[in-house]
Design a protein that fits this description.
Shape: elongated
Radius of gyration: 23 Å
Strand order of the largest sheet: 5-4-3-6-7-10
Largest sheet: 6 strands, mixed
Strand content: 15-25%
Distance between the termini: 46 Å
Helix content: 40-55%
Number of strands: 10
Number of domains: 2
């Protein structure tokens, strides 16, 4: 993809996701991510309807009539995206590639965060950290993150989520919202992820293509493993073969879902061939309801 194409794609994603943020999504984001605490706002005279719990008794005693102390929620949060940039994300058989969907989701969440005055950062990884952008405010930073996701071509084809988790743990001193966007075609990350989730609010978005879930009946098909380079062929007309493939993928997905459930980390699967906004809104509402 050349530079002109990248810029056009960035502009298109920006327009699409900003519209979704402004018209649909920003309220859901604000509801889910409350501020991290309270800070002093003002002391003023008591008014009808104020809570007795807010009365400042020291000031009240000094002036002889009730005053209350008001606090406001500290809204500013750090939102960090752990982005899978390995070769397996450069794949798609329907509407878009997985890495394009990752970019669009990141843009939507970034602009939602910025609309709430939060800081946005990113760590793009393969089997090592490829790009790190510390949390910052501003549209310019969000567009840089989007450009990095679309433009960057990793020379390292495999995935090591565990390394990425350990790296972000060492970098993030302040409690943060951490979105992991990946196809999770990787292993041995569960222990590190469990530790990360004890300090931060971790949310996993699992990106799938329909061909990875269910093998189509399309005759002899040739496949190349994007991470190992291994080439193999299947006769997809064989029903038993398709059933075995589909069963293996279901068992793998079930194992991932069970693992995240045990870690108490919310996981949402999103496919390249389906609209995602309603699924995201439903997911966010579920998280809000669960915390009440």
């Amino acid at each position: 993809m050349d530079t002109t194409e990248i810029l056009k794609k960035i502009r298109k994603i920006e327009i699409t996701t900003r519209k979704l943020v402004n018209e649909i999504f920003s309220g859901e984001y604000h509801s889910m991510f409350k501020g991290q605490g309270l800070e002093f706002s003002e002391i003023r005279e008591y008014q009808t309807g104020d809570s007795f719990k807010e009365i400042d008794w020291n000031v009240t005693a000094r002036y002889g009539h009730p005053f209350i102390k008001k606090f406001k929620e500290t809204r500013e949060l750090n939102v960090i995206f752990l982005i899978d940039g390995s070769s397996s994300t450069v794949f798609g058989t329907k509407n878009m590639l997985k890495n394009e969907l990752i970019a669009e989701l990141t843009a939507l969440l970034s602009f939602s965060a910025l609309s709430n005055n939060d800081k946005v950062g990113m760590l793009l990884f393969s089997d090592k950290t490829e790009v790190y952008s510390p949390p910052r405010k501003g549209k310019k930073n969000a567009l840089k993150i989007l450009r990095d996701i679309l433009y960057y071509q990793s020379k390292n084809k495999s995935t090591n989520l565990e390394n990425a988790i350990k790296h972000i743990w060492s970098l993030s001193k302040k409690k943060s919202i951490i979105f992991i966007l990946s196809d999770f075609i990787t292993e041995n990350y569960e222990y590190s992820l469990r530790i990360l989730a004890k300090k931060h609010d971790v949310i996993a978005l699992k990106i799938n293509d329909p061909a990875e879930i269910e093998l189509p009946q399309a005759g002899v098909m040739h496949f190349t493993d994007p991470e190992t380079g291994e080439i193999f062929s299947f006769n997809t007309n064989k029903k038993k073969l398709r059933e075995q493939y589909n069963d293996l993928n279901k068992k793998r997905d079930d194992a991932i879902n069970e693992s995240f459930k045990k870690m108490n980390i919310d996981l949402l699967s999103i496919q390249t061939n389906k609209p995602y906004i309603n699924e995201l809104i439903k997911f966010f509402k579920y998280r809000v309801a669960k915390r009440k």
